[in-house]
Every structure is written in C-alpha cells, then in structure tokens.
Write a structure and sequence with these properties.
Elements: H1 11-16, H2 23-30, E1 34-40, E2 43-48, E3 54-58, H3 61-68, E4 77-80, H4 83-93, E5 95-105, E6 119-122, H5 128-134, H6 140-148, E7 152-157, E8 160-167, E9 173-178, H7 187-201, E10 207-211, H8 215-223, E11 227-239
Parallel strand pairs: 3-4
Antiparallel strand pairs: 1-2, 2-3, 4-11, 5-10, 5-11, 6-7, 7-8, 8-9
Length: 241
C-alpha cells in the first residue's frame, strides 16, 4: 500500500508495521475525516469527525491506558486494533459489547470484473422494513439512518428484491445480505464487486470487517482478492445505564 502523504509526522512509521490492521485510521486521516487526539511512537487515538467514532491502537498496556483515559465519558462506539486494548477500554469506560473481526482490505487499483445481472441502486426508505426484518447486526434506527445518508444499495432481479450492501459511517464496507431464495447463485459476489468498484472510483481503499466465525464471508472476501490483516480488530459498544 502506498504511504498516504497527508499522514501526520510520525504516524506513517507507526502504521507501517501493519498498515492493513490500521487501514480505518489511515483512511480517516488520508481523506480529512480523522482528528488526532493523541499520538506517539507507542500508539494513537483518533476521532472520526463524520461518524463520531473513536479509533485507537497501542503497542503496550501503559500507553493504551493513557489513550483510553482521554476518551470522553459519553463514548459509545470504538474501533480498536488490539483485542487486549478493547478489553481495557471496556473495563475503564463501562462499555458492554465487543465484536471481534477479521479486517479485509482490497489493495489492487484495478476494478473487479463481474457479470452484472442485478439492477443495483441506492436503497429507499420504503425498503427499510424488509431490511430491518432480515438484518440483526445493526439496530433499526441505525439502519434507517444509513438509508437516509445514502450509504445502502439494493439489488433487484426484475422486480424481486435480492439483497443489499452498504458502507458504515467511517467508510468500511458491510451490511451484505442476500435473501434466502437467491443464495448460492453468485449475487453476493456481484453486490460486493459493485461496491468495491464504487469505493475504488471514489479514490478510497475498499475494506471491511468479517465477524470471527463467519467463514463463508471470509472466503468470499478472499476470493475477490481482499487481503487479511495479520491481527484482529474489535468494535466496542454499549454503555452501562
């Protein structure tokens, strides 16, 4: 991966040890969405301005504790590049949930070649009910907001709603779902290829997270040429009330 010219001094070296693992932090800074709250040779804390997401990485518990101490009291969602750091943040900040994922990144500059069979367009609010009924990895309000923001796309075969895919607020790809009657027919590949090419065309790096244990999705990403980071990333969320 080519170094991003807009990275603050010192961070390029930190990220260079594992750029795939840190791709969300790199892309947030490269596109001007990330604000560096703290950074040093042993870690970094970034706030993604568009989504309000906090992202952090550290090499050791002492510096990790230093970064976690700077999180606001109302922090609700974190993207963390080390699982031990996610556990530390949960303990220190009263966050209750953790989702551990493989990080997959498409580093090629060439678009994916596929046979277009679906009519793919931005999802409209009228489709929210069907999507909410079949996708339980995101809360209904979050799905409605994703639709309103224009970050979800629907695929149709004629008049039949086949599936959908989208982007999270920080830019990662996700939400991939194909309805039961249309599975095992290559439509997941088509939806994933469509969005990968769209992200490429916008000058961004296509990337996404696959929950540990979802081997089918992991195989799909690798089949399309996505590369896996050496370590796992974690999403941490949900506050004690």
């Amino acid at each position: 991966m080519e170094p991003a010219a807009t990275l603050p001094r010192g961070l390029e070296r930190y990220f260079s040890d594992d750029p795939l693992l840190h791709i969300e932090l790199i892309e947030s800074l490269r596109h001007g969405h990330g604000h560096v709250i703290d950074a040093g040779a042993r870690g970094v804390l970034i706030r993604h301005g568009r989504s309000g997401l906090y992202m952090l990485s550290a090499t050791d518990p002492a510096y990790g504790d230093h970064l976690v101490s700077q999180l606001p009291d109302d922090t609700r969602v974190l993207h963390v590049c080390q699982e031990w750091l996610a556990d530390l943040a949960m303990a220190k900040r009263g966050l209750l949930g953790k989702m551990t994922c493989h990080k997959l990144v498409y580093l090629k500059k060439t678009p994916l070649v596929y046979e277009p069979r679906l009519r793919i367009r931005r999802t409209v609010p009228e489709e929210a009910g069907a999507i909410i009924a079949h996708y339980d990895l995101y809360d209904p309000d979050g799905l409605r907001e994703t639709i309103r923001a224009g970050r979800l796309w629907s695929g149709y075969l004629g008049e039949q709603f086949v599936g959908f895919i989208g982007r999270h607020g920080e830019g990662s790809m996700g939400f991939l779902h194909v309805f039961e009657p249309y599975r095992q027919q290559g439509y997941a590949v088509e939806l994933e290829s469509f969005l990968t090419n769209l992200v490429l065309a916008r000058g961004e790096v296509p990337r996404g997270d696959v929950i540990v244990g979802n081997e089918a999705s992991l195989r799909l990403q690798k089949k399309l040429g996505f590369q896996e980071a050496s370590g796992l990333v974690c999403w941490v969320f949900g506050r004690e009330t």
